């Protein structure tokens, strides 16, 4: 267990691609809303902003660089938070679509899912009686028969290409096997520490939200990489968000919150903004005597190239 006085990085995932507008009226959809909520989250204490784009007309996930450019530069201008652009996009996008904006922006960080997997929220469809947009119902129900693709070759090509940009990664690991996939690429010489491992719990298709699974991921990462060579972070989906990320911090990890991961801030209470979730976890962490990492701290801890070397 790490020293209680260490600094904890808060990542905020602002909108994502899995949740649909009918799940929460507060989910940011337009470039203006995404920018506003991201900036507020940074002001509340998020050192890293994990960003997806949505079609402003109906909230559908989009890989369009033109849409990204309507909000990412505004966020970068208003805050010094680390900009982290998804390479995951959504299960409906091709790899080239998912990489379209990251290739142009060459950000300090990108997310990278460490394997192909079933990834689904389809059981939620039965709980929604009224859909705001026509595309949503088929999108959510269709997840039952969709696979998120990231083959070994896909991952190798991303790592090789983005090494030329100086971009580092939030390695999203939804299962123990994803840690071994990460170790495989380390063995190939395509990675260098420190790694930022985002352990994901509670997504159907990945590890469940059992606290014991957190210990399995932590100890496995220790064996594969050595604790000094990586930074552990926790993502708890849905109702498991706050309890799991708090436990993760106590175990020596960092935390991720945001409306991509949960639309709630408490049981039965929807989060009106991403900043609400950031403020809540920050309060919990500070009550436990943890210090919150600044963007400068995060850059130093993760070995990032710096915002001045980005073409957002």
UniProtKB/TrEMBL annotation:
UniProt keyword Zinc, yes or no: yes
Reported cofactor(s): Zn(2+)
Protein name: 3-keto-5-aminohexanoate cleavage protein
Keywords recorded for this protein, A-Z: Metal-binding, Transferase, Zinc
Pfam name, any one: BKACE
PANTHER family: 3-KETO-5-AMINOHEXANOATE CLEAVAGE ENZYME, 3-KETO-5-AMINOHEXANOATE CLEAVAGE ENZYME-RELATED
Gene3D superfamilies attached to this UniProt entry: Aldolase class I
An example molecular function term from Gene Ontology annotations: metal ion binding
Natural source organism: Pararobbsia silviterrae
């Amino acid at each position: 267990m790490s020293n209680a006085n260490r600094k904890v990085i808060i990542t905020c995932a602002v909108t994502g691609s899995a949740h649909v507008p009918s799940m929460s009226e507060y989910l940011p959809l337009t470039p203006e809303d995404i920018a506003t909520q991201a900036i507020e989250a940074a002001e509340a204490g998020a050192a890293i902003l994990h960003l997806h784009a949505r079609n402003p007309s109906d909230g559908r996930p989009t890989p369009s660089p033109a849409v990204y450019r309507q909000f990412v530069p505004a966020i970068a201008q208003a805050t010094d938070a680390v900009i982290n652009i998804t390479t995951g996009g959504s299960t409906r996008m091709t790899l080239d679509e998912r990489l379209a904006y990251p290739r142009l922006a060459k950000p300090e960080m990108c997310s990278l899912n460490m394997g192909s997997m079933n990834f689904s929220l389809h059981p939620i469809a039965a709980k929604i009686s009224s859909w705001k947009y026509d595309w949503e119902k088929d999108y959510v129900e269709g997840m039952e028969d969709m696979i998120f693709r990231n083959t070994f070759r896909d991952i190798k090509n991303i790592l090789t290409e983005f090494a030329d940009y100086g971009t580092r990664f939030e390695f999203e690991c939804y299962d123990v096997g994803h840690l071994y996939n990460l170790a495989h690429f380390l063995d190939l010489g395509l990675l260098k520490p420190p790694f930022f491992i985002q352990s994901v719990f509670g997504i159907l298709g990945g590890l469940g939200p059992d606290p014991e699974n957190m210990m399995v991921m932590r100890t496995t990462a220790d064996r594969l990489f050595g604790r000094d060579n990586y930074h552990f972070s926790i993502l708890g989906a849905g109702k498991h968000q706050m309890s799991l990320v708090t436990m993760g911090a106590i175990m020596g990890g960092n935390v991720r919150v945001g409306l991509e991961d949960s639309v709630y801030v408490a049981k039965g209470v929807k989060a009106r903004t991403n900043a609400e979730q950031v403020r809540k976890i920050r309060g919990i962490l500070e009550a436990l005597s943890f210090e919150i990492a600044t963007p400068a701290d995060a850059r130093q801890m993760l070995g990032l190239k710096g915002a001045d070397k980005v073409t957002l």
